[in-house]
What does this fold into?
Amino acid sequence: MLLPVRTAVLNHLYKVGRANVEEIMTALEDDYGQEKQFTKKLYIDHVMALEANGLLELENYDLSEKEELQLHYKITEDGKNTVVKYVDKKYRVA
Amino acid sequence: MNSEKDILRTAPGTMADIKMKSLNKSFHLTGLANGFVSGLTYAIYSTLVVVATGYDPLASAAGILAAPFVCSGLNDFLAGIWLLIYNAKQGRLRELGRTLRTKPGIMLVIGFLLGGPIANGAYLVGLGLAGAYAIPISATCSLFGAIFSWIFLKQRPTKRVVGGMVMCVAGAIIINFVKPEGAPNFTLGVIFALVAAIAWGAEGVFSSFGGAMIDTDVAVNLRELISGLVVLIAVLPFISGGIKLLGGTLVAGISVAWLAIAGLSAAISFVCWYKANSTVGTAVGMSLNVTYAFWGVLFSVIFLGQTMTPTIIIGSIVIVFGAILVTMNPLDLFKHGEE
It folds into this structure.
């Protein structure tokens, strides 16, 4: 059984520490790529909601080669603690 | 995808800054708009539920519990159906099952049982007995949320929060100062509205167990479906005449049509509320949402012929400001505006 997407996004950041939205989507593509909800708009929603709750932090931003805004996030201490506390161990292994 | 070196690093004040600023601005404006819409639609929901109870067999139902619980069960269930349609369009239906299998998902469900069947049921009983007076009273839920966070999460309230709490209580007292004519069960109605506020305040505590990792659109969908089904299947059979009234209401049809629109308003309200919380922060989101107390009273006066008295106007304004003070520092609004 897969994790809910927002939880999977936070869990990915727990494993890698920092990533931008495109990198997160690439990492989760194998599991969630076939679903209609696999859109950049919804993934930006996920990271911004996690940021609003203090679980992620926007580290910096820049433009990609396609002149698209890229948001780089890192996980906060609160985010790490939340994953350790509430995500089953089997999902946390990198 | 782009690796670190593919990314064109940009200096401050460049295109990236402009785009970031515009993204932030649009998120902030969308968040404020969502918060405002959530308050407005919650007031529409509160008004339409009262309209729905104006038709037989709900209008002539015996007892104080059967009609409000038939309404709350049908309303929440129909809201859940609207949200299922919305989430299906977004391709998120599988998320419902996934969420229920996580620890934060289970904690949220426990909260939903408090906020759904208990709080929403009590709110509608309150509306039935005390009319529009129940609306601002229920808005004191932020007061109880702060108290429960203090007790269970060890979050000590600041002086500002305590000030807001005092205002909430003062507003509730003002509203009860003069009892309206022709409402024999007024005080009981206010007590039910308080039960709703307490249960909503406690519901918030359950979302602090990892609830932030759950997509709120999915959480809201589960909340409405679970609440509706629990009321219809597990609560109504224990209320005298409950099932018979449910059958009669379904056959009559007109109340169900109103409840379907009320359910849509409630669904929009919840989705917007959580969206506001996750874009402009819970404090601002909740403060905009709580304006439903004000709109609810206004709509009741305009559309339901509720008498307007100085005590209900002053009381609801005091409660709205008190609730805002509990959740945020009003000065932050101006800071955000400068961004």
Summary: Confidence is low (pLDDT under 50) at residues 1-11 of chain B. Residues 43-157+185-276 of chain B form one domain. The CA atoms of residues 164 and 268 of chain B lie 28 Å apart. Chain B has 15 helices and no strands.
